[in-house]
């Protein structure tokens, strides 16, 4: 194997492996360096956090527990009598691991099919686009490339009041490996990860308390949607405490004692397990030599331009280690863009059209701007909403909570924000993404024929409602 490549990618997560495959498809001699080792202590594991301990395993658990929740509480009202529904946690975890193994193995197959050279070890960028790889035995080898793509991802943030012990106080990865349902579960952080993991274990019977430092629930989400979601989460039994600053956690007699302060003063709670989900930080530990030419900010994010170029010639960076949301699909789009730019093309990522999803039940999904952002910017806009409670398909599916909300520019009618809380929000939001990518107006969606009966009809009705013309719900009276 030659030690010289057109492209070397460091990291095989959603940004890295996609960049490597695309670069190889474009005729570039490509290698991808990844240090993740399987449970056997030998084999290389591809896919990064997302496939191994993030997006995929968490969704596998969310799907199973959602079905369990429905069977336990909702089937009777639909005429299905399932008297004794139980959960086999070990079987659930085994299934989750099987899905992960299938997908990570699939990437290895795609590398082979596309001619990507996998290199197992820890990659470090040296000066002059050289990459030093250290294997598990400590042996090093140096490779050269015309272009290097950094895609090393992120890791959970650990906070001083609650250091991880891997048993009682865990990060998101540990929360995917519980062997039994904790009786009382504490979660620090009411963000995407905290809410999803809280939902998983609450559905299986855990008494879940989520402690959030910020006063506002889901401040990045449109607040009309966030308030609707919060109401539904609380109805499901999630105890969500906002405006609560954690001050300490101590494990005593197989329990975690948590101290926090809220508007009522000092509080204490005790849990069987505590998940700390306060966010993630860029993972660049040992990935850059001092003379690599790549610069970072004080939080560890690598400086890049709009096209993901770093300040070092021929070095690019994508995904969680650069500005923008820490989302797998954003990383993948950046990986494709960089590979194509290296090959001489001129694509760009439209950062205004990146969807966000929280895979709770109901799901929460959005793209574009919130009403709060537009108010702060002084923009004039119109809003159309439509509740799933008035949607026939949602009634048939016994999933009538939530709404679709469309925000359009008051003058041009161009869609500025598209927000969904409710069933299949993660799929419905794609309609908003496509519409916004093509510069659609709310009227464009209002003039489009949607199949009946579908959940997507709520998009049609919300678009009609922007101009006060919804059919299946009473419209707001326009101010004269």
Automatic annotation (TrEMBL):
Keywords in alphabetical order: Cytoplasm, Disulfide bond, FAD, Flavoprotein, NAD, Nucleotide-binding, Oxidoreductase, Redox-active center
Cofactor note: Binds 1 FAD per subunit.
Binding-site residues, NAD(+): 189-196, 212, 279
Positions of disulphide bridges: 50-55
EC number: 1.8.1.4
Binding residue positions for FAD: 59, 123, 152-154, 320, 326-329
Compartments it resides in: Cytoplasm
GO MF, one annotated term: dihydrolipoyl dehydrogenase (NADH) activity
SUPFAM superfamilies from the UniProt entry: FAD/NAD(P)-binding domain, FAD/NAD-linked reductases, dimerisation (C-terminal) domain
Required cofactor names: FAD
EC class: oxidoreductase
List of catalytic residues: 452 (proton acceptor)
Cellular component GO terms held in the UniProt record: cytoplasm
UniProt domain FAD/NAD(P)-binding: residue ranges: 5-335
Domain named Pyridine nucleotide-disulphide oxidoreductase dimerisation: residues: 354-463
Reactions listed under catalytic activity: N(6)-[(R)-dihydrolipoyl]-L-lysyl-[protein] + NAD(+) = N(6)-[(R)-lipoyl]-L-lysyl-[protein] + NADH + H(+)
Keyword Cell division in annotation: no
First-listed, main subcellular location of the protein, grouped into a coarse class: cytoplasm
GO terms (BP aspect): 2-oxoglutarate metabolic process
PANTHER family registered for this protein in UniProt: DIHYDROLIPOYL DEHYDROGENASE (PTHR22912:SF224), DISULFIDE OXIDOREDUCTASE (PTHR22912)
Family according to the record: Belongs to the class-I pyridine nucleotide-disulfide oxidoreductase family.
Extra information: The active site is a redox-active disulfide bond.
Summary of subunit composition and partner proteins: Homodimer.
Entry protein name: Dihydrolipoyl dehydrogenase
Species of origin: Marinobacter vinifirmus
Gene: lpdA
């Amino acid at each position: 194997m030659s030690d010289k490549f057109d492209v070397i990618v460091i990291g095989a997560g959603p940004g890295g492996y996609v960049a490597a495959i695309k670069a190889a498809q474009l005729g570039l001699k490509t290698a991808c360096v990844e240090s993740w080792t399987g449970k056997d202590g030998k084999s290389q594991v591809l896919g990064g956090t997302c496939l191994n301990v993030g997006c995929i395993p968490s969704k596998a658990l969310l799907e199973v527990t959602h079905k369990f929740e429905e069977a336990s509480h909702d089937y009777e009202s639909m005429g299905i009598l399932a008297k004794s529904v139980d959960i086999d946690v070990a079987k659930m975890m085994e299934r989750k691991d099987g899905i992960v193994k299938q997908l990570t193995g699939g990437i290895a197959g795609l590398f082979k099919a596309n001619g990507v050279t996998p290199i197992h070890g820890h990659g470090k960028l040296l000066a002059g686009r050289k990459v030093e790889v250290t294997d598990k035995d400590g042996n090093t080898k140096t490779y050269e490339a015309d272009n290097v793509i950094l895609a090393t991802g992120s890791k959970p943030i650990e906070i001083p009041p609650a250091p991880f012990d891997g048993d009682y106080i865990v990060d998101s990865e540990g929360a995917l490996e519980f062997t039994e349902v904790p009786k009382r579960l504490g979660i620090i952080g009411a963000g995407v990860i905290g809410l999803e993991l809280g939902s998983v274990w609450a559905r299986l019977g855990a008494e879940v308390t989520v402690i959030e430092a910020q006063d506002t629930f889901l401040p990045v989400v449109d607040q009309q949607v966030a308030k609707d979601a919060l109401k539904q989460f609380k109805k499901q039994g999630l105890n969500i405490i906002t405006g609560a600053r954690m001050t300490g956690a101590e494990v005593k007699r197989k329990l975690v004692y948590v101290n926090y302060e809220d508007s009522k003063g000092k509080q204490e709670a005790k849990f069987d397990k505590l998940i700390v989900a306060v966010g993630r930080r860029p993972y660049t530990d040992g990935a850059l030599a001092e003379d690599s030419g790549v610069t970072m900010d004080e939080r560890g994010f690598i400086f890049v331009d709009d096209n993901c170029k770093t300040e070092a010639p021929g070095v690019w960076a994508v995904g969680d280690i650069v500005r923008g949301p820490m989302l797998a699909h954003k990383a993948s789009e950046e990986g494709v863009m960089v590979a194509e730019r290296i090959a001489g093309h001129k694509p760009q990522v439209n950062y205004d059209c990146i969807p966000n999803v929280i895979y709770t039940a109901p799901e929460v999904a959005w793209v574009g701007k919130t009403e709060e952002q537009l108010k702060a910017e002084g923009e004039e806009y119109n809003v159309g909403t439509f509740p799933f409670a008035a949607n026939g398909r949602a009634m048939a599916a016994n999933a009538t909570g939530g709404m679709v909300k469309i925000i359009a520019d008051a003058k041009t009618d161009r869609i500025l924000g598209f927000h969904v809380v409710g069933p299949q929000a993660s799929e419905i939001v794609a309609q908003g993404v496509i519409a916004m990518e093509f510069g659609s107006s709310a009227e464009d969606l209002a003039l489009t024929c949607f199949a009946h009966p579908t959940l997507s009809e709520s998009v049609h009705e919300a678009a009609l409602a922007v101009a006060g013309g919804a059919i299946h719900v009473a419209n707001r009276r326009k101010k004269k």
